[in-house]
Amino acid sequence: VMITAYDVASYPTKYRLLDHADFESTAEEFRRFAFNLACEIPNGTFIISNWEAKNDVVLQTEDGWRLYKEYLQARLDGTVAGRKEAEIEGCSGKVLTTYEFIDLKALGGYWDQSMGGFSDITLASQLRGLDYLSYSSWNSIGYGHGSPWIKLSFQEAIRNIRKFARENSLPDELIIGEFGELWNISPEPDGSRLKTIVDTALEEGVEYLFNWVAYDQPGSGVTVGGKWYDQSHFGKFYQNGELTPQGDFFKDLLAK
Fold first, then answer.
1. How far is the C-alpha of 97 from the C-alpha of 58, rounded, in Å?
2. Model's pTM, two decimal places?
3. Which of 31, 42, 115, 182 has the maximal Cβ count within 10 Å?
4. Closest C-alpha to 154, from 168, 172, 184, 174
5. Is 10 exposed, middle or buried (0-12, 13-18, 19+ CB in 10 A)?
């Protein structure tokens, strides 16, 4: 189970206006969380993650990123401490850590579509206690492109991330933290693009992939440049529990 976790200690400011004492509270909360996961759910495996770093930071400034790094490190320190205590107690659950990012522009990729600003993968090199790296892969998908483009884009992204990991003494175990597409406007409505993402990630040795999202979200959307874009149809299920066309595709894919 991968858990995108926040904490009561920093809510609702979410690390933006905190001091060191608050980060200590965050670390303590994650220590307890990791310990209880490992000890209360026997033989479970849990990966604790942040949400997409670049989207999670409201203050896109040097000071904002410094605070965010301190916040993430407090989470990691607490998680590592909690799982060590659980191991000493003989608990059978396994708790692991990851850092999720969305922007690979600093790695110099040809296919990457990120729009500039801080390249949040670089923050990983300043963090201690990571077991995985997690790439939320929207910048590698390219909504107007077909499967051949998708394959090249994901190959490049995965290989560049692994190269960065090796150069910075980071784990090269990789998670695709998010991938998906709107089933109602896909350029390949037969699911070929999604299958290409899955196949390419597995061929490149990715450990886990997480698809966005289980249920359609009626009314969900985003405004870009003053224009509203419908984001309702990423789901595998309609709200009534019946399979969407994308759900039917995944049902067939997973049965093979």
1. 23
2. 0.94
3. 31
4. 174
5. buried
